[in-house]
């Protein structure tokens, strides 16, 4: 059965959708909450960014999902539809390990509103973080669609977003 990457900008609801898919009986992993992703400077793993991380820090460091982690998850769930939810900087290296990629899509106002609810100190809670997220989000739909991702409007309730994901995957002959 397919392994699906659910990606999108911060605030799109990747973690929330992953929890909903899990509630519906699908194995679902979160790159952040499940500790799957790692920060790297070149080839060396480093500590996550602290509150003083600035644009330069983010330009020099990459959040990666190790290929072996994706392969391990795929092998463990070869008989069922499973999901990995999160955004990482090495998606170009790992996309081929997934049977499908779903990109959660949001408008700027919704991203701003959702990030405004983040706990102080968490990523997306500062004006600089919001600016970074909006910069990344500006081209994400176009970029992900170009590479064949299923674009899903993530502005509705999580149950609706999960239905759009599952329906879109069924339409592609997956799930």
Description:
The protein has 175 residues and is α/β, with parallel strands linked by helices. The chain is built from eight helices and eight strands; from the N terminus they run βαβββαβαβαβαααβα. The protein has helices at residues 14-23, 55-60, 67-76, 91-94, 108-115, 127-137, 140-146, 158-171, and strands at 3-7, 28-30, 38-41, 44-46, 62-64, 82-85, 100-105, 150-153. It is globular and about 45 Å long.
Secondary structure elements and their pairing?
Layout: E1 3-7, H1 14-23, E2 28-30, E3 38-41, E4 44-46, H2 55-60, E5 62-64, H3 67-76, E6 82-85, H4 91-94, E7 100-105, H5 108-115, H6 127-137, H7 140-146, E8 150-153, H8 158-171
Parallel strand pairs: 1-6, 1-7, 2-6, 7-8
Antiparallel strand pairs: 3-4, 3-5
Structure classification: alpha/beta
Q: How much is the average pLDDT?
A: 93
The low-confidence parts are: none
Beta-strand content estimate: 15-25%
Helix content: 40-55%
For the secondary structure, the number of strands is: 8
Large-scale geometry: globular
Largest sheet: 5 strands, parallel
Going across the biggest sheet, name each strand in turn.
2-6-1-7-8
Order of helices and strands, N to C? Answer: EHEEEHEHEHEHHHEH
């Amino acid at each position: 059965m397919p392994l699906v990457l659910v990606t999108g900008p911060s605030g799109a609801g990747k973690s929330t959708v992953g929890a909903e898919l899990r509630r519906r009986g699908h194995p679902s992993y979160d790159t952040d909450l499940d500790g799957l992703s790692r920060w790297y400077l070149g080839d060396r793993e480093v500590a996550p960014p602290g509150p003083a991380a600035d644009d330069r820090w983010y330009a020099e460091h990459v959040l990666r999902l190790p290929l072996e982690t994706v392969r391990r998850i795929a092998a463990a769930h070869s008989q069922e539809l499973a999901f990995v939810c999160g955004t990482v900087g090495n998606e170009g290296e790992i996309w081929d390990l997934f049977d499908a990629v779903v990109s959660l899509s949001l408008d700027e106002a919704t991203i701003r509103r959702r990030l405004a609810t983040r706990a102080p100190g968490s990523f997306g809670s500062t004006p600089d973080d919001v600016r970074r997220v909006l910069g990344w989000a500006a081209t994400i739909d176009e970029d992900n669609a170009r590479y064949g991702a299923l674009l899903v409007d993530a502005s509705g309730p999580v149950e609706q977003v999960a239905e759009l994901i599952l329906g879109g995957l069924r339409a592609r002959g997956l799930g």
